[in-house]
Amino acid sequence: MTATATAPARRTRGFNIEKWAWLFMRLSGVVLIVLIFGHLFVNLMVGEGIHGVDFGFVAGKYATPFWQWWDVLMLWLALIHGGNGMRTIVNDYVTHEGARKALVWAIGLAAALLIVLGTLVVFTFDPCNGVLESGVMWETCQAVGN
C-alpha cells in the first residue's frame, strides 16, 4: 500500500484584501483606543468635567485644528473599523451571493455617507451661524466679528 503525497498548496501572489483588512483592524483598534480614551479624558476629567461639556465647550474645541483633526481621525477610523467588521460578519454568515453583495455595498455606502457628513460637520462648524440678536450667543459672536 503506497501513500500518495499531496502537493503543497500554491500561494498566489498579488494584493490580498483580507490580509490588509485584518491588519487594518488590529492597527486601527490600537489607535482608536488612544483616540477614544484621550477624547474621554479631556471631555470628562479636565476642567469642570462632565458639567463643563456644553455647546460652548464643543465650539471651543472645534475652534482649534488639533481637536478638529483628532475628532475626524477618530470618526474615520471608527466608521471604517466598524464597517469592515460588519463586512466580515456579512461575509461569514450570509450565504446568498446577491444578498451578501447588496449588504456589503449598503454597509460601504452608509459608512462613506457618515464619513462625509461627519467630516463636513467638524470642519464647517460655526457656533455663530444662525444666532439671532435675542440669542444668548449674540454678544460673543459680535465680539469675535462673526
TrEMBL record:
CDD domains: SQR_TypeA_SdhD_like. Pfam families: Sdh_cyt. The keyword Metal-binding applies. SUPFAM superfamilies: Fumarate reductase respiratory complex transmembrane subunits (SSF81343). Its main location: membrane. The keyword Membrane applies. This is Succinate dehydrogenase. One of its GO terms (molecular function) is metal ion binding. InterPro entries: SQR/QFR_C/D (IPR034804), SuccDH_FuR_B_TM-su (IPR000701). It comes from the Bacteria. Gene3D superfamilies: Fumarate reductase/succinate dehydrogenase, transmembrane subunit. It is found in: Membrane. The chain crosses the membrane at residues 20-46, 66-90, 102-125. The lineage of its organism: Bacteria, Bacillati, Actinomycetota, Actinomycetes, Micrococcales. Keywords: Heme, Iron, Membrane, Metal-binding, Transmembrane, Transmembrane helix. One of its GO terms (cellular component) is membrane.
